[in-house]
Write a structure and sequence with these properties.
Elements: H1 3-16, H2 22-29, H3 33-45, E1 50-53, E2 57-60, H4 73-89, H5 92-107, H6 111-123, H7 134-138, H8 142-151, E3 153-160, E4 167-180, E5 183-190, E6 195-200, E7 204-213, H9 222-232, E8 237-244, H10 245-248, E9 260-265, E10 269-276, H11 279-286, E11 293-297, H12 299-316
Antiparallel strand pairs: 1-2, 3-4, 3-7, 4-5, 5-6, 8-10, 8-11, 9-10
Protein name: YafY family protein
Keywords: Transcription, Transcription regulation
Length: about 325
């Protein structure tokens, strides 16, 4: 990236946040701190009202705006792909806002780029996973939860418990949204349980944002919370199985949900290695393959599966 392009990119970066540190700019553009100071000074000398506070960072004076940005074809194409994914993983309100933003982006493209984007739009299709339900795919209440997090408002919800039809009323203080397992989850402090909880959004029956403001000073950020949860996870167990080739085809993409690490094609079977924190859940999964599968290691896991099979036999005798 030449210096002119870098100066423009730094200015865009400065306008994207309230405050940006010199270290953050240096890391993003892979330049030294000395180069950052020179570039910021060059922008200031060109008339850009950049305010620098020692030990805090840089900010652009309120009210200053960069003239309309010209997107490259590659940047606009990337946003189009993101929009296609947004169609199946966000709620109607977020989808609408994204579409409006995409129209504005298209308006500043060159005619040749517009034609390419239109062609791309017609020929890119994202098909929802067969494991998703329509409710999961719509990701209801994303907009409301985003508003609640920004304004620090307590959210009242009616939540359906897993594997149960019981609906409970909860008042929660949302700290973040997380997408995993083909579904959106809201991480929040539950006032009923007096602890942090993971609420799967497809189980939310009703939701509205109240006028009650909560103090978020004691709440961790979503990244801090997830880091702590990861640290509390059980020790990962390595499990190696061998499965007949005629049976292996039925595993398909399921293996990625159970900690798949690697596979080795052998003469008569396939050797699969997994890392999992939940051996019990893993055992219940592989039981569906009955005699088409053999556990290679560890020995204690093999004994666990054997015990489960014996319980199953005694139950049905």
């Amino acid at each position: 990236m030449n210096r002119i392009d870098r100066l423009s990119a730094i200015l865009i970066h400065l306008q994207s946040k309230r405050r940006v540190t010199a270290q953050e700019i240096a890391e993003r553009f892979e330049i030294s701190l000395r180069s950052v100071y020179r570039d910021v000074k060059a922008l200031q000398e060109s008339g850009v009202p950049i305010i620098g506070e020692s030990g805090i960072g840089y900010s652009v004076m309120e009210g200053y705006r960069l003239p309309p940005v010209m997107f490259t074809n590659e940047e606009a194409s990337s946003l189009l792909l993101a929009g296609k994914l947004a169609e199946i993983s966000t709620d109607p309100a977020v989808k609408k806002h994204f579409e409006n933003a995409l129209f504005k982006i298209k308006s500043v493209l060159r005619y040749t780029d517009k034609e390419q984007i239109e062609t791309l739009e017609e020929n890119v299709i994202v098909i929802p996973s067969s494991y998703n339900t329509s409710k999961d795919a719509n990701a209801q209440y994303l907009s409301e939860l985003q508003r609640a997090m920004v304004t620090k408002r307590v959210v009242h919800m009616e939540y359906c418990k897993a594997y149960d039809t019981t609906v409970e009323a909860r008042d929660v203080e949302p700290i973040g949204l997380c997408y995993y397992g083909n579904a959106w989850h809201c991480i929040a402090w539950c006032r009923l349980r007096k602890d942090y909880r993971d609420f799967k959004m497809s189980r939310i029956v009703k939701l509205y944002v109240t006028d009650t403001v909560f103090d978020n000073s004691s709440h961790p950020s979503i990244s801090e919370y997830l880091s702590k949860m990861t640290a509390r996870e059980k020790q990962l167990s390595e499990i190696i199985i061998r499965i007949r080739k005629d049976v292996a085809r039925y595993i398909g993409g399921q293996k990625y949900y159970y900690g798949f690490v690697s596979e080795e094609i052998c003469e008569d079977d396939v050797r699969l290695t997994f890392l999992t924190s939940y051996p019990d859940m893993f055992a219940r999964w592989i039981l569906m393959f009955t005699d088409g599968l053999t556990i290679e290691s560890p020995a204690d896991f093999k004994a666990q599966v054997k015990e489960m099979c014996e319980k199953l036999y005694r139950h049905h005798v």
